[in-house]
Amino acid sequence: MLEVCKSGLIALTISTLTATIASAEPVKVKVFIGSMFEIGDNTGDRAGEFQHWFSKYWMDTEPQEVLGAFRPVHCSDAGICGSVLGMGKVNSSASMQAILLNPNYDFSEAYYVLAGVAGTPPSRGTIGDVVWGTWLVDYDLGHRWAPEEGEPGAPVFIPRSGYEAYRLFELNPSLVAWGVALSDDVEMRDSQAAQEYRQRYPDAAAQAAPSIKTGTHMTGDTFFHGPGLSNEAQYMAELYGADDYLITEMEAAAIALVIDRQHGTDRIVSLRGAVNFDQGNPNETTLQHLDPAPGETAGGFAETVENITLVGAPLVDRIVADWEHWKDGVPAQDSQ
Predict the structure, then answer these.
(1) Distance set, CA 117 to CA 202, 240, 247, 308, 332 (Å)
(2) 112 within domain boundaries
(3) How far apart (Å, rounded) are the C-alpha atoms in residues 142 and 108?
(4) Which helix (H) or strand (E) holds 95?
(5) What is the CATH number of the domain that holds 166?
(6) Using CA atoms, how far apart are residues 115 and 226, in angstroms rounded to an integer?
(7) CA distance 111 to 266
């Protein structure tokens, strides 16, 4: 008789727990921040892309495991959620899809901040810059051939027909404008090492202090380096009618496609900080740039990952603080 009672009690407990879980309201996500990697722990050691965001929004939160995601999701009581999605198109987009489809989260009105480090051409940017993406271009979708197999000096890329709907995304200009305006007075971090490294490049943009810019983010699984491929990236941006190429990164266009198929792209921002140049200086070859000697790296990584959060957080905070103005779409700037 006792065993029967025990079995009944266990069954009732399980039934009650299942009903409680099923009836729990999903987390209403107001802003989702996606980074691509963290170096070690989320706090207390050398910071990667996620740590400064974690320290600002999720220090007192519990990790929430999501089947299919690269790392757990963290959510604040204010509706700010975030996760490390993994590097590269496949890693990051698979994580984003798993999180979006998880019934524990309601993304129906969410905004997205896709934030990480990147490279920049020395003709347009410098170490420590943070760039709000105006366009996302997929670098890999098309046809390429060896330069010696084409016309001398001609481009070695043409778009592949059929990829028009997902090789190019224009991000919401109104949302980008909000991000730029709210970060206008951010004091950018810099380092002595980065300042010295910049002087190796003759370009005025490369030698300048870090600043906030806007431009095209070029998404490619290939870590392309050298002036030839940098020029090709700019050629692609012009070919597609996008803004100048300022950032080379590995995830944003793929993540945007996943979000687009569920909720559109009007609430996405792509925010990248430049930690390297996409080519060597005039006194080094591309291979030397790819494999620098000890002590010859760019410097400024720690400052750049901090800059990214400093630049992006004002937009996150404004969206959440004025949620009634934002939940139905990006408001006009003169309405607040």
Answers:
(1) 23, 24, 9, 8, 29
(2) yes
(3) 33
(4) helix 89-101
(5) 3.40.50.1580
(6) 24
(7) 8
Answer positive or negative: Cα dihedral of 284, 289, 290, 296.
Answer: positive
**Element containing residue 16 per DSSP (H, E):** helix 2-23
What percent of the chain lies above the pLDDT cut of 70? 93
Cβ neighbours for 26, distance < 8 A, ≥ 6 positions apart = 103, 104, 105, 106
Q: How many domains does the chain have?
A: 1
For residue 253, the one-letter residue type is A
Q: Which two tokens stand for residue 123?
A: 């003709």
What are the respective helix, strand and coil percentages of the chain, to the nearest 5?
Answer: 35, 20, 45
In this predicted structure, the answer to whether residue 321 has a pLDDT above a threshold of 50 is: yes
Evaluate if residue 4 carries a pLDDT over 90: no
In a domain, 236, yes or no: yes
Mean pLDDT of 252-256: 98
Q: Hunting for tokens 């996008």 — which residue is that?
A: 242
| Residue 241 to residue 169: CA distance in whole angstroms | 11
Structure tokens at 126: 């410098």
CA dist 42 and 288 (Å) reads 33
Residue 4 lies in a domain: no
- E strands along 60-129, which residues? 73-75, 80-84, 105-106, 111-120
| Mean pLDDT of the residues in the chain | 92
Please check whether residue 117 lies inside any domain of the structure: yes
* Angle ∠(137,140,146) on CA atoms, nearest 5: 125
335: confidence class by pLDDT, cuts 50, 70, 90: low
Q: CA of 28: how far to CAs of 60, 267, 327, in Å? A: 18, 15, 11
Query: How many angstroms separate the CA atoms of 54 and 60, rounded?
Result: 9
Q: Which domain holds residue 318?
A: 26-327
pLDDT tens digits for 160-212?
899 999 999 999 999 999 999 999 999 999 999 999 999 999 999 999 999 99
Question: In the chain, what is the straight-line distance between the N-terminal and C-terminal CA atoms, in Å?
Answer: 68
pTM for the whole structure: 0.91
